């Protein structure tokens, strides 16, 4: 009798474990996500230019952007944002008039922590994180002998949403505000007889639209 009871208990335990295994959610969520966006980088610029005064004008740029995300769970992820953009720069309203300062390339890798609001095909998210901006490929223009931009550390705020087309592919809409400041040193000894420093706030808005895939 005891053996029959024990066998029945073991059988029930086995059935219970099987039922739990069948009901338990399968973790089929994608840990990695990749996006390719087209972005519009619109500086919200201002400058404090020593000696000659004035302000700065920095052109808008339209470039591709690639990003990589890693998901810790359905809600939390880290996103590394990679892009580079070329901007024309001009000092305006100075004591020496408007000065063409050529162009500069910006490489601003940005890492944001994101929270995703799940619940359907429409997946909005918010993010924030640090930025490191490198300046390269400087063309000083027709007036200055040389222009140097200091490497800058900034901060980004982000919002957007993914719209799932199927289990893997989705559309993405994204906006970021980057708080970015650099010191520009303009060597204009030939034209102005001086080297001028400027404290420049670039602070661009970055608007993006693209497509992504989950792997």
From TrEMBL:
Residues 1-21 form the signal peptide. One of its GO terms (cellular component) is outer membrane. This is Outer membrane protein. Keywords: Signal. It holds the Pfam family OmpW. It comes from the Bacteria. GO terms for biological process: transmembrane transport. The lineage of its organism: Bacteria, Pseudomonadati, Bacteroidota, Flavobacteriia, Flavobacteriales.
């Amino acid at each position: 009798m005891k053996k029959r009871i024990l066998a029945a208990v073991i059988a029930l335990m086995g059935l219970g474990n099987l039922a739990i295994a069948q009901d338990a959610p399968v973790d089929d969520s994608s840990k990695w996500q990749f996006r390719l966006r087209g972005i519009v980088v619109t500086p919200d610029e201002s400058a404090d230019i020593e000696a000659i005064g004035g302000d700065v004008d920095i052109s808008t740029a339209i470039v591709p952007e690639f990003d990589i995300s890693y998901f810790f769970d359905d809600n939390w992820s880290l996103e590394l944002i990679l892009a580079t953009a070329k901007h024309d720069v001009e000092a305006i309203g100075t004591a020496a008039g408007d000065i063409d300062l050529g162009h500069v390339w910006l490489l601003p890798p940005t890492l944001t922590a994101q929270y995703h609001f799940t619940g359907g095909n429409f997946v909005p998210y918010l993010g924030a994180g640090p930025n490191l901006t490198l300046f390269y490929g400087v063309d000083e223009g027709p007036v200055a002998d040389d222009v140097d931009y200091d490497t800058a550390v900034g901060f980004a705020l982000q919002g957007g949403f993914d719209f799932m087309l199927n289990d893997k592919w989705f559309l993405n809409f994204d906006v970021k505000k980057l708080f970015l400041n650099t010191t520009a040193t303009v060597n204009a000894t030939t034209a102005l007889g001086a080297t001028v420093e400027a404290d420049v706030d670039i602070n661009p808005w970055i608007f993006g639209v693209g497509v992504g895939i989950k792997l």
